[in-house]
């Protein structure tokens, strides 16, 4: 049973109980470029109480550096070292875990965030935002030249996805021996500023269906993301809380890492998902309407 937070005393005790606060972004801090009410004040309170703050997002459209730009634009205090995105975790996974040989490339279905993080990790890639792939022209297999050095396909949120990208990825995954199928994350939907949109999971779904093959998923709830954080930040899981809006990514991620979990209802999950006959079997430790509620705790 989740604890429903409501009183200033409860928020104050919660803040005292945890030294490290991991925040999901979409649906928790913001919707698109619109900040959720109270986000800045709440983060200020946590910083004034000497808490470690980390931002852990499955949204692969941006790199850590471009996320820093978004935080600055929105007036949110954050440093690049506090930001962990699925694009970053995917690039680290390919370079340090999969150890893709230097003479190999990645075929990307995704946006600049993935490209920037792959470059940072010294991983070569094709596809992505390349205009030749972002085409409306029909795909012609007859005119397609297979690049034998493609050793992995990485698929993330891509607002310019098309039949050409899916077809090229399909060629690499069916014709290049040992070509790995990776996705940054599997979120079915994305809470934009103007409402719900298909998520990264919906972008890789056609490829999964065509291949009848499941990819390796890097983002939450996979532990790969937590391993990335552990490689950079010291924290005690018992004194760490994951704050999220989605049960099957954020809350499962926290539970899988032995962290405590706080669900907010400003994003993907709503009251009907956690109460009543169809309540999810994923039960967070705490629930509150919005992160803005934590302002009731006040500064020291
Ligand atoms: O489709 C996606 O990639 C996700 O919906 C989205 O980006 C989730 O981001 P998060 O809530 O983890 O910040
Ligand atoms: Mg979210």
UniProtKB/TrEMBL annotation:
GO MF term list: alkaline phosphatase activity; metal ion binding; phosphoglycolate phosphatase activity
Binding site for Mg(2+): 24, 26, 245
Highest taxon listed in the record's lineage: Eukaryota
Identification of the protein by name: 4-nitrophenylphosphatase
SUPFAM superfamilies: HAD-like
Lineage: Eukaryota, Fungi, Dikarya, Basidiomycota, Agaricomycotina
Residues that bind substrate: 220
Pfam families: Hydrolase_6 (PF13344), Hydrolase_like (PF13242)
InterPro entries in the record: HAD-like_sf (IPR036412), HAD-SF_hydro_IIA (IPR006357), HAD_sf (IPR023214), PGP_euk (IPR006349)
Enzyme class of the recorded protein, top EC level: hydrolase
